Amino acid sequence: MATMRDKVIAKFREVYGHKGEVSVFFSPGRVNLIGEHIDYNGGHVFPMALDLGTYIAVRTRPDKKVNFCSYNFDMKKTISLDKIEKQPDDDWIKYPKGVLAELKKEKVNIKGMDVYVYGDLPNGSGLSSSASLEVGTGFAFARLAGKKPDLVKLALLGQRAENEFVGVKCGIMDQFACANGKAGHAILLNTNTMKFAHVPLNLVSHHIVIVNSNKKRGLVDSQYNARRAECERALEKLREKKKSLKALAELGVGDLGLVKRLLNGNEEKRARFVIEENDRVLTSVNALKKKDIKKFGECMSKSHEGLRDLYEVSCRELDILVELSTGVAGVLGARMTGAGFGGCIVALVPKDRVEQYIEHVYTNYKERTRLDADVYVVRPADGVHELKDPKK
Questions:
Q1: Which of 174, 292, 374, 389 is the catalytic position?
Q2: Among 66, 202, 280, 354, which has the minimal tally of Cβ within 10 Å of its Cβ?
Q3: Per-residue pLDDT at 1
């Protein structure tokens, strides 16, 4: 039976021909279980890498050209490594181009390459298809340049590519999870210090289920940057009283009174959410370590309430999915995940009620929104890696 590696190589050869050795890399997507919109505020996040992601097949060329082709998009593009510039028609190419630009800054001797990309993540769903592509590109090009990438530095490089080349002021969580995932575990990451730990996901009786709302996320980039700017303004005002404060998430729930006194309007709501969400992450992980899955689920649901009411990045479709999810007996928690304004929710669903859950959510969501929901039962997976030929 053909493996995914075999299938991707076959597609590669249809486009680029049969000569030369082809290497294949897999870079996972990620779902964040709790800790949303606080990675750029120095908070703790708790994502896991997915068993869905991006397959990247590459073959070196003797020149300085990089050819890109994707199974998922009807678009081919050739760029020169001598001059990597953003173009108006870049579309999905801007993500790997940004990574190549950062690799050049790092003095990595990147080679000309034929590149074929196949992804089984739903695009624009909040499962980090862009970060998956960035991390996978960086890993593949570094490996074929003879480097063994440091995975933390690789994540930071992918973040810089998105911040500076793509123009989205994302935090570090997405790229970090795609690079540093571990099968059977989620990652507790302190984004202020970059210290992290792999935490076993011993859910026993429950599955992690992702539901894609299929609501187009037209506002996400502009509103993401707007929320970040609001947090930065809140931080500056709070520094008038706490001079050493470097990030909003350094504050604890005991500082909420100070926030209320010094801030108002959106800045107060954003700061309050950051502080409460950071506390929820730590509470939920401690509950998980004690095998208190019920408490973990409660924290997830409270997180959604904060994202809806204080950070204001949810939408009607996501709220409906959360409501429908928590209406199924045994579901312990549900929340939107990702940047918001569409995309996905994540829920803790009893293993013996997954089919019932899917039918209930799909039927009622369709009735209320006229949209089809896509459902994925997922497992925590390893981070970016090369798919070796098992015959060698």
A1: 174
A2: 202
A3: 72
